[in-house]
Amino acid sequence: MSTQSYYVPDQSRWPILASMALFLMAFGAGNMINALSAGDGGGVGLVMLLAGALGMGMILVGWFGNVIKESHSGLYSQQMDRSFRWGMSWFIFSEIMFFAAFFGTLFYVRNLAVPWLGGEGDKGVSNMLWQEFSSQWPLLSTPDPQLYPGPQAVIDPWHIPLLNTILLISSSFTVTLAHKALKLGGRSRVVFWLAATILLGVIFLYFQAYEYAEAYNELGLTLHSGIYGATFFILTGFHGLHVTMGTVMLIIIWLRVLKGHFSEEKHFAFEAVSWYWHFVDVVWVGLFLFVYIL
User: Fold this and answer.
1) Do 38 and 68 reside in the same domain of the chain?
2) Looking at the structure, do residues 55 and 193 belong to the same domain, yes or no?
3) How far apart are the first and last CA of the chain?
4) Are 251 and 226 found together in one domain?
5) Which of 289, 278, 208, 211 is closest to 246 using CA atoms?
6) Which stretches of 7-159 are DSSP H helices?
7) DSSP tag of 280
8) Which whole number is the average pLDDT over 51-62?
9) Nearest Cα to 190, choosing from 84, 267, 82?
10) 94: which residues sit within 8 A by CB, 6+ positions away?
11) Does the pTM of the predicted model rise above 0.70?
């Protein structure tokens, strides 16, 4: 039975260690980008980035391990459960704003900045900079092709992107089936449907990597192929990172189910991961529509 008083955890070293690891990752990433731009390779920045990422992984294992032990000890009340739910809700809201910023950038570029450079709209005078430039989207011909050559072609949305859409939408159904099975006490079905969700996520990541290789090697679509390439890889790349994180979270939950964790009534960690996975799926639907099709 969980306690009915509000649980105040002991002082913890995890928050300050996590802040240090995040700083190391950010500082390392900045140095690595500068080194790559100068043609010096990843250099020390890559080492710092990897060290920070490894440290962050170890910190999360220890931190979440403490939370699991506290939960199994019955220290968490209904008030604590509500706090966890609010915390996860605000985290997903912050992720929504994160992607909204990039979708907003895509909207601004394709509907305002590029048409202005092509002589359209109230700021069409910008066309004086590159008078031979004609606006289009996807941007296959950039204003300065010598500096940033555009891609030879764009990715066909009706092959790998459509397949990935089917995979992620299917994974939303499988994780929902796993959640329903958990509520009904069907632990073997939970294991099966969670494994199916993880498999779908891994297959999605495989095809995403295959698509990136095709874009770089055959289509000339890279981070250096103008604003279209930059927005394409930023949006799909960050989404791929989130799918990777979600898949790792699903694997952890699956292992916990195998160990007998969670009950029909108390399984917020499972719910939190399923919320996150549904969010990732919805973002992909937006990407499929606004990046690949429209």
Assistant:
1) yes
2) no
3) 53
4) yes
5) 278
6) 14-37, 43-72, 78-108, 114-117
7) H
8) 92
9) 267
10) none
11) yes
146 against 114, higher pLDDT:
114
Which domain range does residue 66 map to? Answer: 9-73
248 lies in some domain: yes
Q: Kindly write down the DSSP assignment for every residue of 213-265, as one continuous string.
A: HHIIIII--STTSHHHHHHHHHHHHHHHHHHHHHHHHHHHHHHHHHTT---SS
Q: Residue 54 domain-assigned?
A: yes
| Residue with the two structure tokens 């910023």 | 101
Cβ(193)–Cβ(181) under 8 Å? Answer: yes
- Residue 71, class by beta-carbon neighbours within 10 Å (0-12 exposed, 13-18 middle, 19+ buried)? buried
Write out the DSSP string of 145-204: TTTSPPPS----TTTHHHHHHHHHHHHHHHHHHHHHHHHTT-HHHHHHHHHHHHHHHHHH
Q: Is the pLDDT of residue 16 over 70?
A: yes
Query: Taking Cα atoms as reference points, which of 213, 8, 230 lies closest to residue 138?
Result: 230
Together in a domain, 169 and 247? yes
Q: What is the pLDDT of residues 131-172, one digit of tens each?
A: 787 888 888 888 887 777 888 889 999 999 999 999 999 999
* Statement to judge: residues 57 and 87 lie in one domain: no
- Residue 274 in any domain: the answer is yes
Rounded distance, CA 137 to CA 107, Å? Answer: 11
Tell whether 87 and 166 lie within a shared domain: yes
Q: Which one is predicted more confidently, 152 or 192?
A: 192
Q: Which residue from 69, 83, 96 is spatially nearest to 12, judged by alpha carbons?
A: 69
CA nearest to 60, candidates 89, 9, 13, 18: 18
Q: Are 55 and 162 within one domain?
A: no
Please tell me the total count of domains within the chain.
Answer: 2
Contact yes or no for 200/178 (Cβ under 8 A): no
Same-domain check for residues 53 and 157: no
